[in-house]
Structure formats: C-alpha cells, structure tokens
Amino acid sequence: MKKSLLITSGVVAASVLAGAIALMSSSSPEVTIVRSDRESPSEILPGTANPVGQVAIPKALEPARTKIQRLQTVPLAPPRELIVKAQQSGSAQDAYDAVQGIRACSVRSGTGKRVRELLHESGVKLPPERLGALMDGIDKPERACQELDAAMLAEYGPFIRRAMNGGIEGAAAQFWVGPEGKLLKTPAGEDKAIDLLRRDALNCDKQSLLTYQVVSWKFSSEFNPTEVAAVEAASKNLEQQGKLRGNKAISMAKSFATPTNTVKAALQSDAVKATSADILRACDSPAS
User: Fold this and answer.
1) CA 163, CA 79: separation in Å to the nearest integer?
2) Cα torsion 186, 275, 48, 170: sign
3) Residue 74: predicted pLDDT
C-alpha cells in the first residue's frame, strides 16, 4: 500500500468509530459523526502517529500525556501546497494527498486550545523550552490550515472522486465518510464507490475494513451478506492480534443497536471462512 502522507491522528478512524454508534441509533438518512480522541489510528492508518519535533511528553502529564501524543501528527506538506499541486497536476495521487490535507485540517481546528487545556488540567509545568517546542509543533500546522479558503475546502468532493477514478487505495473509504464527519446520505448512483470500498477492504486496507463495516450496516441491501460476515470476521481477527484498533467500538455499537437488517450468513460458514482467510492473507502480503 502506498501511503505518501502522514495525516492527523483520528481523521477517518475517529469519524468511523463515533459514526458507528451514531448511525446505529439514527432514524435519519443523514448520520452526523462526532469526533473522538479515544482511539489512536496509528494501527488503523499506516504511516500515522508521527510526534511533532519528537518532543517527549513527561509521564507526569498522565492522563493528558496520551491525549497530547494523539494530537501530535502533521501532514507531510502544508495543505495549501497539496491542494495547489493537485489543481495543477490533475493527478489522482495528488488529489488523494490533498484530500488527506483537508481531512487533517477538519480535526486540527482548536487543537492548540485543547492541548493547553490538557496541560492546565494536569497541573504539571513544563520547562519553557519544552513547552515552546511542543506548542510550536502543534500551532504551526494549525495556522497552516487557516490559510485554506472556502474554495479550497470545496475541492474535497472533486478531488476524492478523481482519486477514486484513478483507483487510489483508501479513497473510497474517505468518500463515504466526509471530512465534516458525516456518512454519505445514500448509496444511490454510487456503485463504483461501493465496488472500490469492497476492493480495498478485501485487500486489507485497514481504514477500509472499518468503513466497510459501517457502510454495509447502514446500507445492507447493497452488500453481499457472506462478504460482510467475512470482513467482520477478518477485522475481529486483526483486532485480537492488535493490528486493527477501533474495531471493538464498531462491534460494540452493533451489539447494542437494534438492526433494521441482519447479516444472514453464518459466521462459521465455509464461504465466510474462505473469504476471511483471503483478507488475512492480503494483510500479510508485502504490499500491505
């Protein structure tokens, strides 16, 4: 899997996790997905969780320490540069990178304020030079996001479709859950987006495995129940191996919800086992 960009912790993963609970209890076709910092997607989104400036957070800052670390991720390039590059090149990969930058900014707003609140609540005082390095690493990318105007943010839709049309792995997962944290209202006319999400989940793109479970629950008539059960089984297996954080939240949301549609296939059927095994083999391949 080519991951050319480091993105903010929680961008898609947190949206999918919180969205799982939101969509199970929502009777509206529009599902609002709130942000969450409960899960770090470092194991969901390969290539994430890069500490800003490698500034060490003292253990005395617990519980703030873990939360701050989860906020310390930055894009490889400023989002404005990524967007301009995508506009000029017409490249599917550049479009996907720009989408990542926009998504990062969607959760970065207010990050500096939240970190300062956590530091204040901890009651621990950092040496001025360490505090300055920490906050500079957080504030600088947040300021970069403030350079994006409405026209740039509006490029998200065209960019994500360009990335999907170019077959970029992971693009479909980010199409179904937008940067504002809302699940797409309807699957009508989006057969290609469904096919690409299926392809990526079956190829063990971990972000897609999580998104697939949410989308297939909400729009169950669009998915093969045997495949749905296989993705669920493979995801649970990866979760138990510590390779797919966030899956437990989705499973819990399903267990507490009253489903409008149920997966008909038995989890132990031969077809489910075979498809699940194929997914796990894809996870173990060098490309993954």
Assistant:
1) 16
2) negative
3) 46
The domain segmentation of the chain, as residue ranges, is: 13-284
pLDDT for 82-140, tens place per residue? 999 999 999 999 999 999 999 888 777 777 778 788 877 877 777 888 878 877 777 78
Q: How far apart are CA 57 and CA 119, in angstroms?
A: 11
- d(CA 269, CA 45) in angstroms, rounded, equals 30
Name the maximum alpha-carbon separation found in the chain: 61
Phi, psi of 27, rounded to the nearest 5 degrees: -95, -10
Q: Please state the rounded mean pLDDT for residues 256-271.
A: 59
Q: What is the pLDDT of residues 15-52, one digit of tens each?
A: 444 444 344 434 333 332 233 333 333 222 222 333 33
Strands 31-32, 182-183: pairing kind: antiparallel
3-class secondary structure per residue, 230-253:
HHHHHHHHHHHCCCCCCHHHHHHH
Contact assessment for residue 239 and residue 213, using Cβ atoms and an 8 Å cutoff: no
DSSP per position, 10-63: TTTHHHHHHHHHHHHH--SSSEE-----SS-GGGTSTT----GGGPPPPGGGTT
Residue 208's H or E segment, with its range, is helix 206-218
Kindly report the backbone phi and psi dihedral angles of residue 201, in degrees, each rounded to the nearest multiple of 5, phi listed first.
-65, -45
What contacts 86, CB < 8 A, 6 or more positions away? Answer: 94, 95, 97, 98, 155, 159, 162
**pTM, entire model:** 0.69
CB 129 within 8 A of CB 51: no
